[in-house]
Fold these 2 entries.
Entry 1:
Amino acid sequence: TSMKKTLLTIVAGCALVLSACGGGGADKDTADKEGAKTEAKKVLNVGTEATFAPFEFMDKGEVTGFDVDLLKAVANEAGYDVKIENTGWDAMFAGLQSKQLDIGMAGITITPERVDSYDFSNPYFESKTMIAFKDVKIENAEDLKGKKIGVQNGTTGQFAAEKIVGQNSSDISKYETAALMFQALQSDNVQAAVTDIAVALEYQKNNPDTGIETVTDDKQFEPEYYGIVFPKGSEYVEEFDKALNTVLDNGKYAEIYKKWFDEEPDVEALKK
Ligand code: ARG
């Protein structure tokens, strides 16, 4: 048996040397062709901040939500698979900068500043700012003045709050995740949270006995549009835009929208 072992070792060693020297080149070519035949899709790495229901949140260890379903549908249409990781907000942008991530998908508003640093798909969702508040009276954006305000750091909610109370206001507390912002509101560390409408409404719906109220202000806050984010110069933008268009037109977008929002989307308005 020791003879057998020695033989085996020699055979295994030879195989290793062969493949290491590229001796297995012919085999590898065949394998590649077969891979193409079975259409193994390229996997794109996606970062997100998954405390933003109903767009992205963790459920049994998986990132789930409207954004997840939509991105999978669009990627599939474009011929790609996606691996979505809850990187957090700042790490997502850093990963896009360093091109370690191929995509950022996190209810990310298309803003002129961000467009300077990243590529965006066409809009896939219309949003606006909403104020969620507790134990105070807030009827419009102006009423934010003099209140303790929570925002998710680096989001349009922060920028909206700063527009009203000033950029360096000590009344604004910045949290790393949307969840921490809501927690601060819940535990009375802040009196108001400024965030995206669908997320505020979802939180209110899921926390009915907390006395949280919500209000919007169309005079102060402009409509916003979410886009899929790519590193600057990404090769995928065009394919994803084309695929997004298909998904908008073929009813798949409407199907996903109805699943998460219980109503029909206005697809035509989005395409304008
Ligand atoms: N739409 C806002 C923005 O782009 C907030 C997005 C926050 N997203 C998240 N997954 N926490 O600034």
Note: The chain is about 45% helix and 20% strand.
Entry 2:
Amino acid sequence: PRVTIVGAGRVGSTLAQRIAEKNLADVVLLDIIAGMPQGLALDLMEARGIEIHNRQIIGTNNYADTSGSQIVVITAGLPRKPGMSRDDLLKTNAKIVVEAAKSAIAHSPNAIFIVVTNPLDVMTYLAWQATGLPRDRIMGMAGVLDSARFETFIALELGVLPADVKAMVLGSHGDLMVPLSRYATVNGIPITELLDAATIERLVKRTRNGGAEIVELMQTGGAFFAPASATSVMVESILLNQSRLLPVAAYLQGEYGLEDVVIGVPCRLGCAGIESVLELTLTHEEREGLHTSAQSVRRNIERSQE
Ligand code: NAI
């Protein structure tokens, strides 16, 4: 199989490395900067003997080289600078993502699309609109990353293995995300048995601010290792038809009382893309949180089209 990554920046190039080194697929890295994706591809190819895999990595500035991809990941666009919110990237990235989605689908009409560019939920909606794809074949990555951050903070607080912590974060990728604390566990034991309410609230706050915390520390762009890992899990579940149940930004058609909006919800991901959307029974507060996040995504979809 072949995966195209549009945007060979920090998230895109790290994702290319993950996909090749996990031996999931050949990778085409595309960017507008001449020579840059070609150089990265050559660098990754030269690591193959050491990492022991035989995946092809191609760098290009031309969409014709992406043809016949099973998956297209869009990471093209600007990242945040300190003090910026994801929404500040709206108009610039909207143009880039719409153009990338249209060009990519023209060469890979059967591909499944994963959008990573921020503001995530809005960009996924615009890419859905631009490609005209059915909702099972286009989605955004955010929830897997936000959940991994929540799990990390829980593991650090309790001094347990990160892999033993399971949590799910729904809603939009931003301050209005909806971490489902009551479902978070350490090997099946609810964290509500292990931590007091104030501590859980502190970890939830840190999760909401997880992206900004890294932007402020780095001062030059944002996170990319964990985002690339999170995206590679989605790519893997699709390519290997694993049907993993993951939080995915999906176009909703009435689920959770929401329609014509993209928001993070639990989805099963397999070879056809989104196999199903799981509708959880939410508390009043969680449902309100999801609806508030959806309203802000809707407002930004409108703003992006003004
Ligand atoms: P970066 O600046 O390192 O890379 C972006 C790349 O896109 C650059 O190489 C740039 O040349 C390229 N690009 C710009 N316009 C293009 C076009 N029209 N066609 C093809 N390529 C184009 O940024 P980074 O750190 O890789 O982040 C990429 C995006 O992903 C940002 O919008 C960032 O906010 C977002 N992001 C989203 C996450 C999520 O959870 N959904 C997590 C981390 C980042």
Note: The longest helix spans residues 284-304.
